[in-house]
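Structure first, sequence second, as always.
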């Protein structure tokens, strides 16, 4: 019997639309120009792609996520330029806080389903951080009034461990006083969410309503694209 449900954040609770990434790239180009290093849009796009791979590899190798300052340093190093530490800090702070200036939209149906689920289940968030810190994401969830439905919020930069490693799932279930066999995780990533939850012996639901990359090929117990019938789905499948 399911007693607890954990949710990923990005593209599960909040839609990770491209507006903030575009703002970050624009700001990088501005600071690069100030440091006498003009860079084109295609060049900054390429640097972001390369940095994204470094970020993912760091999780695999070290089981931790890099924060915005580390990610800025990676891009500066990939560009092979020298940049003063204050400028690196300035970019890192901008990249973290940009989510507050241009807040991502809440996924359709999220608040309604959380209201219903919170009456029956213990709820928690398990979120890998990166450009946006746990502090920033927590603030976003508070601003949207969503934190009231969760008993615990786990962020990788605060927990010191990242998805898909089972320890972050086990840590969160400990906060919910629940065994893995009594819990289900919902997220959009086959690797971070589904594989991780399965390794932790939890049930797993792939949410493909925003990110449909894994919709037709995943190892989840079930795939959903809306939250319309989630309560019925939980009761029927688990």
């Amino acid at each position: 019997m399911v007693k607890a449900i954990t949710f990923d954040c990005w593209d599960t609770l909040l839609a990770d639309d491209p507006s903030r990434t575009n703002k970050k790239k624009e700001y990088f180009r501005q600071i690069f120009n100030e440091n006498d290093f003009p860079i084109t849009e295609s060049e900054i796009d390429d640097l972001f792609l390369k940095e994204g791979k470094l970020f993912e590899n760091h999780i695999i190798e070290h089981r931790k996520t890099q924060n915005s300052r580390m990610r800025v340093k990676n891009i500066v190093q990939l560009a092979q330029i020298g940049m003063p530490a204050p400028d690196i800090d300035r970019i890192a702070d901008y990249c973290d806080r940009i989510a507050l200036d241009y807040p991502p939209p809440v996924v359709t149906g999220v608040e309604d389903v959380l209201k219903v689920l919170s009456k029956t289940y213990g709820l928690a968030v398990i979120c890998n951080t990166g450009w946006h810190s746990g502090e920033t994401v927590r603030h976003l969830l508070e601003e949207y009034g969503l934190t009231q439905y969760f008993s615990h919020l786990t962020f990788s930069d605060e927990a010191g461990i990242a998805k898909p490693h089972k320890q972050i799932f086990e840590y969160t279930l400990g906060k919910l006083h629940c065994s893995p066999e009594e819990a289900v995780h919902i997220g959009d990533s086959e690797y971070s969410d589904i594989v991780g939850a399965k390794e932790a012996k939890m049930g797993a639901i792939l949410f493909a309503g925003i990110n449909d990359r894994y919709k037709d090929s995943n190892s989840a117990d079930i795939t959903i694209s809306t939250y319309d019938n989630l309560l019925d789905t939980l009761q029927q499948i688990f």
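Margin note: The chain has two domains: 4-16+105-237, 19-101.
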